[in-house]
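FAQ

Q: What does a record look like?
A: Structure on top, sequence underneath. For example:
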């Protein structure tokens, strides 16, 4: 249960950071910028964002470097 809670907290942190970054800069952060901000590995960020994309909470765009945006449904 603890691992699931940690994952949910991390997912919320990633969504919040992407949204905040996008609002401030008018473009999405890179995986590296997310990892640096949240002090996580690139693999952790990749796994978290993949799960969020599967849930429909974030969307990958066609932009090569800045491709994650929060789904504002």
């Amino acid at each position: 249960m603890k691992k699931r809670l940690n994952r949910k907290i991390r997912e919320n942190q990633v969504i919040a950071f992407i949204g905040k970054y996008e609002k401030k800069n008018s473009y999405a952060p890179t995986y590296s910028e997310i990892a640096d901000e949240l002090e996580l590995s690139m693999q952790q960020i990749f796994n978290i964002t993949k799960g969020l994309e599967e849930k429909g909470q974030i969307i990958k765009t066609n932009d090569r470097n800045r491709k994650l945006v929060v789904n504002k449904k």
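Q: Is there anything notable about this one?
A: Strands lie at 58-60, 68-70.
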